Amino acid sequence: MGTSPAGSPSPRSWRDAAGSPARGRAPKSKRRRIFQLFAAFLVVAGVLIAFLWSLRQPPTLSFRPIYVTEHTNQLIPVNGQARQDQQALLGGNYFPNTSKDLSTIQERQRLREELDALKKQQPDQTLLVYVSGAVLCDARGELHLLPGDADIDNPSTWFRLRDILDGVQACPARHKLLVLDIMRPLADPRLGVLVNDVAQRVEQLLQETKEMNYRVLCACSPGQTTLVSEELGGSGRSVFGYYFEQGLRGWADGCLNSRADGRVTVEELAALR
């Protein structure tokens, strides 16, 4: 009694059993270390994700200016302030990936080539198309942009505004904005009147266009015409072009009764207009 077979360990007393941890159950200190390691892993993972997020490149912005400034037909007035407007937009470095070439798209064929080039945009790009020029209606009420080689007496040499809208629609870029600075009054010396209902006809055209996958910002509302100023910008600017550029500079940021966040939205630009 009281002895164990030779070679076998002595049995533990109940005190020894109570003082040892139960099998399959980790000590509290071990569980605490596991929890601390897991928490540290979460912290490191969060810092790494934040760092990778900060390195993410912003969407590429493609700026495609279409400024028709001069015409071979002397009956069409010169778009005098367009070059200053374009120079201000390019010189302000709002579109760093855009060429600083100030050459304008004038001829009808060049307009067609520019619209065809929009089909090569990537889906992850952001597109801004800015159209500035004179617009007329044909006998059927169809709006046309007058290219530099347009014959004012031959509508077949004009360029349909609807084709520009279709070109932007067909562009695969996910985010697109079309700016129409085409509401300048057009004086016809033979009729002695001002053709100034372009804004109303543009609004009708946009309402008729279904399933638009882009935004449109017009220089003015129906019944209005855009104006020019010899004082704005120091060398003369269109009023809309000047304030559009100032909006990109930061004036529009936070103008919708919200705090400035360093980003300018289309809604803020429209409100500034």
Walkthrough of the structure:
The chain has 273 residues and is an alpha/beta fold. It has two domains: 28-57; 61-272, Rossmann fold (3-Layer(aba) Sandwich). 35% of the residues lie in helices and 16% in strands. It contains eight helices and eleven strands. The strands form four sheets. A four-stranded parallel β-sheet has the order 1-2-6-9, with helices on one face. The chain has a three-stranded antiparallel β-sheet with strand order 3-4-5. A two-stranded antiparallel sheet has the order 7-8. A hairpin with a 4-residue loop joins strand 7 (186-188) and strand 8. The chain is elongated. The termini are far apart.
Low-confidence spans: 1-6
State the separation between the terminal residues, measured CA to CA.
105 Å
Q: Which structural class matches the secondary elements? A: alpha/beta
Share of residues in strands: 15-25%
How is the quaternary structure best described? single chain
CATH class category name of the largest domain: Alpha Beta
General form: elongated
Sheet with the most strands?
Answer: 4 strands, parallel
CATH architecture identity of the largest domain: 3-Layer(aba) Sandwich
The strand line-up of the biggest sheet is 1-2-6-9
Mean pLDDT across all residues, rounded? Answer: 79
What fold name stands as the CATH topology of the largest domain?
Answer: Rossmann fold
How many distinct domains?
Answer: 2
What is the gyration radius calculated from CA atoms? 34 Å
